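Supplementary Methods. Inverse-folding protocol.

Structures were first reduced to a discrete structure-token string of length 1234. This string, shown here, constituted the complete conditioning input.
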């Protein structure tokens, strides 16, 4: 039987049994049925995929397998089997509690079906088309892999992955996803698809047939109640029907977009008919036919004129913006009237030359300042201010195993390190980093204030009928009469009547008065032939009327603005604003013909003039542009349209957003910002990760991505505010940002390099990767040794060096740390002490203690105590007193140690401020352990309970775990109290579940089960069974086969105690199968023996133990030469057969046990074997042999006797011998009685 088969069998049995016993049932995934469905859908050939969709013809899969694998390196090759097993273990845990997986895939618009750890897959399904569209987008963009990494991989992965380059590869079966996509479309009714071949439809709107060519996109509606397919042609709105059709659904994004379009935008405008050979052109072109302009926005051209393309020429649009080379005039040119010239080319850039590409402003100085402040707040590196408690293990070997493997190879290079430290200490800097950043920010703010352009403002004067005085209007007309675009016009062109009424014009009581004033101004401009002022005033009046829903009047004003006679329309942004407003009105009034004409012209301007979306009233024209690009299969135009739509919606967000790079990195950052605002934390973090991985990523991109991660990680990982610190997820960003700042530069760059290094080293230290932390600190010191100005103040400099010293102490290099601390101490002022000097002295004491120099350690601690008393620094004084107590404890002076620790506890208890709870709790635990060892159990218990209360109040999970473990050990061993031990053990289980330590949670549940069994009541046995099943479920999920086997066995034993014998054999058989699947002979032997013990020590069914001992365990012991196990099994078999009165069979095993005991030279086992053989022969009425073996037993009697019980034993043996001789052998004279 294979391991996988055994596991599935045992797991399914466990879940069935949980249901039988009334426990929560966990159904196994129905893999075979689902797999058959998926394989059936995937196995169809490509030709069948394009046939007519019909629910009766296709068997569509109901779920999509998301396949997971750990990969490594740039080639993304699979990792070793051990790493893949770790991934399977994580999935097994999530099978038991899938809430996190469910939350993630809900965010990804999918619905969780099941998790298969054996197949490394997660099965999801979709309910609506929007679910499929969003999930497909996230998958193709690469977000899915990073989301799953955040879910499955622990925090240390982000640190080890910096060098190993390990990641989670997520893949789906494209054909299966396509089939599900089709199925969802069919369920929802009508959908958009392209024709797989040219075909005819019976027209339902005209006399002729509807003909669609291959590749044409139309809206299809599936048959209903025997009817045929219904089709809507997007080109002209014609409808048709057919019994069958050949189609292919368009991609999900196009499907979503067409569904979001209004019918007026979506349908009509015919098929693109331009034969211009380039799809997305820049450069110049040549006119092929003469054309006379029909309006001021068009260019009059003659055959052979050379036209320079302004912006982009997109072949699917009727117009483009051009400049006549001969005259310099700019206007709209028909695309059908030009042909390519020699310098034209197909552009691969969707952006215009003068176009801002930033969705939001990323100023490097501001990002560095914000990052510095946030990292300094979250890092909480207090080594330079607070004393450190000496809690290192006294055993160097024990601490060695806790560090990472790289610590062994750390070469401190002491001479070079000392030289660099001396250089740094010789430099001084009085100003702190904050002042540098503040002054820089102040300069930036002043500069931004001085450069911000002012907004034009005009006073509205009351209009009196019959009064022809126009002096009050002259300033407005002078401002508006300018043929080219000015930056001040930007505020006027935005489609907002509220902005016009409140910000640009003042002095009017209502809009009617403003409209009257602008009307007089318009009439004055017309009379004075101020055409540009007239056009702009018409636009303003149209905007005000449109805002008041007077669309017909607004249309008149806008059309007048276009028809004002002039030689050309130089202000193209005004032209775009007029076109945008007219397009909205035409669409509202369902004037499709004029809407299409205006939309075509506006599309030409948007492709040629930067920032035209600022004056766009709605997104209907932008959607029209995207529709044309999709139907024309012009990918570059489609990308440009998507960019314009994204920019339009971004600039109209709820909050004011900065100026707009849509480089890949910045595009991901933009998405991350949007996802964060929408509460999609997993996607926001994944977007930041994708931005940092781009080859073109800059320092600003890395820092902005890190800020996004810090904003959203708490929601992704579930870390509370009390536990907030630098999360390991930012390690890749810290590492990448360091590569940009390591070369030195400005003060800000150097300061950022320092802060990044310290934070990264703290992460390495937290996860016991001390070698990496030390190397980064050495690099920081080496780089700053050559710098003229340090990026930190003197206290910060000392703090960094002390942090390096502490890392060396923790890495079992106290001698290196001592040299560093001595250098820092020597650089401090000689004439006066400082609080930081006490910090150095305390750490030096720790170094001396680790080196075994207890006397000098005591001197350093005492000097630190004196400085604390001088400055009345009570928190640090408490730590120094505790260190003295721990030092005395190391020296064996327990009474003095208790005195110092008690004094430290007293000082801690008097502190009012927060932040010292961890040290306080640690000291309480050490004092409690000391009292317990001295048998002051009540005092020790009070210390433990006090520590636990403090940890609960401060929400310190690690401290709660430490205190609870001590209390469990106290009530379990030192002061046995089963009730209290059970209570604290159950609390420990809850804490371990919060900490995510699943393995220890299972082990603690095993211990609780044993505690309940010792109570020997029916209720306690049932509680023990519940704990055993919970631990069994955990070990199944973790893949701990040996513990799983013992869990099944323990559950069977408890069922025997409860009298439910029908389940005992079932559980023990599963335990045996799981043990056999491990292939470990020793473990199999031990488990089979333990299975026999279940019946051996029971009051019922003892004969069942014979099968396990004799038929299963004993042959294995013989084959594997396990002599001690064989001896033990033979003894148990002999004793068991003796109880069952199977004396003849028992003799064989008793004799074997005797032979093994003699060969091993174990006299006690030999004596027991002789006695057992004598008892057996006595019961078999073989009295001579019985007498012989009893005498053998007496011959092994020690002289003198060691215990009083031995005397009674030998008296009984002699009495038995006398009875045999007198009654059985009929010997009248018996000396045994004498």
């Amino acid at each position: 039987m294979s391991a996988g088969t055994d596991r599935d069998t045992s797991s399914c049995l466990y879940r069935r049994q949980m249901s039988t016993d009334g426990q929560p049932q966990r159904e196994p995934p129905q893999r075979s049925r689902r797999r058959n469905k998926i394989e059936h859908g995937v196995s169809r050939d490509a030709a069948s995929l394009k046939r007519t969709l019909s629910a009766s013809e296709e068997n569509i899969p109901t779920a999509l397998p998301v396949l997971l694998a750990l990969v490594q390196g740039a080639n993304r090759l699979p990792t070793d089997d051990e790493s893949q097993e770790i991934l399977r273990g994580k999935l097994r845990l999530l099978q038991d509690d899938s809430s996190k997986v469910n939350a993630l895939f809900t965010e990804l618009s999918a619905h969780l079906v099941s998790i298969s750890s054996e197949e490394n897959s997660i099965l999801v399904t979709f309910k609506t088309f929007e679910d499929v569209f969003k999930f497909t987008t996230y998958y193709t963009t690469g977000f899915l892999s990073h989301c799953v990494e955040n879910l499955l991989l622990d925090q240390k992965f982000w640190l080890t992955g910096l060098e190993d380059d390990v990641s989670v590869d997520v893949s789906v079966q494209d054909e299966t996803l396509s089939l599900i996509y089709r199925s969802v479309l069919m369920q929802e009714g009508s959908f958009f698809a392209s024709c797989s071949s040219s075909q005819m439809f019976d027209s339902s709107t005209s006399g002729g047939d509807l003909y669609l060519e291959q590749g044409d996109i139309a809206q299809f509606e599936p048959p209903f109640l025997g009817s045929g397919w219904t089709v809507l042609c997007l080109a002209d709105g014609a409808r048709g029907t057919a019994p069958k059709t050949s189609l292919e659904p368009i991609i999900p994004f196009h499907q979503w977009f067409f569904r979001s379009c209004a019918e007026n935008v979506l349908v009509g405008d015919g098929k693109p008919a331009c034969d211009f050979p380039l799809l997305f052109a820049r450069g110049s072109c040549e006119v092929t036919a003469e054309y006379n302009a029909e309006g001021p926005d068009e260019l009059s051209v003659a055959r052979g004129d050379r036209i320079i393309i302004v912006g982009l020429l997109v072949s699917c649009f009727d117009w483009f913006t051009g400049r006549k080379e001969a005259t310099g005039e700019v206007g709209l040119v028909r695309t059908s009237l030009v042909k390519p010239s020699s310098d034209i080319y197909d552009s691969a850039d969707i952006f215009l030359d003068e176009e801002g590409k930033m969705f939001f402003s990323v100023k490097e100085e501001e990002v560095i300042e914000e990052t510095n402040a946030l990292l300094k707040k979250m890092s909480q590196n207090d080594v330079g201010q607070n004393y450190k408690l000496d809690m290192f293990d006294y055993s160097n070997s024990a601490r060695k195993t806790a560090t990472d493997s790289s610590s062994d190879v750390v070469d401190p290079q002491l001479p070079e390190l000392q030289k660099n430290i001396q250089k740094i200490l010789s430099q001084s800097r009085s100003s702190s980093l904050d002042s540098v950043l503040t002054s820089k920010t102040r300069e930036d703010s002043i500069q931004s204030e001085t450069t911000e352009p002012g907004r034009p403002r005009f006073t509205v004067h009351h209009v009196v009928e019959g009064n022809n005085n126009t002096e009050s209007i002259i300033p407005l007309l002078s401002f508006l009469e300018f043929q080219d675009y000015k930056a001040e016009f930007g505020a006027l062109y935005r489609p907002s009547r509220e902005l016009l009424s409140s910000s640009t014009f003042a002095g009017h009581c209502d809009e009617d008065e403003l409209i009257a004033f602008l009307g007089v101004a318009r009439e004055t401009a017309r009379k004075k032939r101020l055409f540009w002022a007239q056009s702009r005033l018409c636009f303003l009046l149209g905007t005000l009327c449109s805002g008041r829903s007077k669309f017909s009047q607004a249309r008149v004003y806008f059309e007048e603005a276009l028809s004002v006679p002039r030689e050309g329309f130089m202000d193209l942004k005004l032209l775009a604003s007029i076109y945008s407003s007219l397009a909205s009105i035409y669409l509202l009034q369902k004037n499709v013909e004029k809407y299409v004409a205006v939309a075509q012209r506006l599309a030409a301007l948007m492709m040629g003039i930067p920032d035209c979306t600022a004056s766009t009233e709605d997104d209907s024209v932008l959607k029209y542009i995207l529709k044309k690009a999709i139907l024309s299969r012009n990918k570059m135009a489609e990308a440009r349209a998507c960019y314009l739509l994204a920019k339009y919606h971004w600039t109209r967000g709820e909050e004011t957003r900065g100026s707009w790079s849509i480089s890949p990195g910045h595009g991901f950052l933009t998405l991350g910002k949007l996802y964060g605002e929408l509460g999609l934390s997993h996607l926001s973090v994944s977007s930041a990760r994708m931005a940092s991985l781009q080859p073109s990523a800059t320092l600003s991109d890395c820092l902005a991505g890190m800020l996004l991660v810090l904003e959203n990680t708490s929601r992704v990982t579930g870390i509370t505010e009390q536990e907030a610190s630098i999360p390991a997820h930012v390690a890749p960003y810290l590492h990448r940002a360091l590569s940009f700042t390591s070369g030195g530069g400005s003060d800000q760059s150097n300061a950022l390099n320092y802060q990044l290094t310290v934070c990264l080293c703290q992460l390495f230290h937290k996860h016991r990767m001390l070698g990496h932390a030390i190397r980064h600190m050495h690099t920081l010191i080496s780089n700053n040794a050559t710098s003229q100005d340090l990026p930190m103040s003197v206290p910060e400099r000392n703090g960094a060096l002390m942090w390096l010293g502490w890392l060396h102490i923790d890495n079992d290099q106290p001698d290196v740390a001592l040299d560093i601390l001595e250098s820092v101490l020597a650089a401090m002022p000689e004439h006066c002490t400082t609080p930081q000097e006490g910090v150095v002295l305390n750490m030096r004491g720790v170094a001396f203690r680790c080196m075994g120099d207890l006397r000098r350690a005591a001197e350093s601690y005492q000097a630190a105590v004196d400085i604390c008393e001088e400055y009345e620094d009570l928190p640090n004084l408490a730590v120094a007193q505790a260190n003295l107590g721990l030092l005395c404890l190391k020296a064996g002076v327990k009474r003095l140690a208790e005195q110092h620790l008690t004094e430290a506890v007293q000082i801690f208890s008097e502190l009012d401020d927060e932040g010292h709870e961890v040290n306080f709790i640690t000291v309480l635990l050490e004092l409690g352990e000391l009292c317990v060892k001295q048998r002051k159990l009540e005092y020790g218990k009070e210390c433990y309970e006090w520590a636990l209360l403090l940890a609960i109040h401060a929400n310190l999970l690690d401290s709660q775990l430490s205190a609870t473990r001590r209390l469990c050990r106290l009530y379990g061993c030192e002061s046995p109290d089963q009730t209290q031990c059970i209570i604290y053990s159950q609390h420990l289980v809850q804490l371990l579940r919060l900490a995510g330590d699943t393995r220890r949670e299972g082990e603690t549940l095993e211990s609780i089960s044993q505690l309940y069994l010792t109570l020997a009541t029916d209720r306690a046995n049932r509680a023990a069974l519940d704990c055993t099943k919970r631990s069994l479920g955990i070990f199944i999920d973790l893949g701990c086969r040996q513990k799983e086997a013992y869990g099944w066995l323990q559950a069977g034993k408890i069922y025997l105690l409860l009298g439910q014998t029908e389940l005992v054999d079932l559980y023990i058989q599963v335990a045996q199968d799981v043990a056999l699947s491990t292939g470990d002979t020793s473990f199999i032997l031990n488990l089979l023996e333990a299975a026999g013990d279940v019946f051996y020590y029971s009051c019922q069914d003892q004969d069942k133990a014979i099968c396990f001992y004799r038929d299963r365990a004993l042959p294995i012991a013989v084959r594997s030469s396990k002599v001690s196990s064989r001896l033990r099994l033979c003894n148990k078999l002999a004793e068991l057969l003796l109880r069952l009165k199977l004396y003849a069979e028992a003799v064989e095993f008793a004799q074997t046990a005797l032979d093994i005991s003699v060969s091993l030279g174990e006299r006690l086992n030999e004596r027991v074997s002789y006695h057992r053989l004598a008892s057996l022969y006595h019961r078999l009425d073989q009295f001579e042999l019985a007498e012989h073996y009893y005498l053998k037993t007496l011959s092994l009697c020690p002289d003198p006797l060691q215990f009083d019980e031995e005397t009674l034993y030998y008296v009984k043996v002699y009495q038995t011998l006398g009875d045999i001789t007198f009654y059985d052998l009929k010997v009248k004279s018996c000396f045994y009685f004498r």
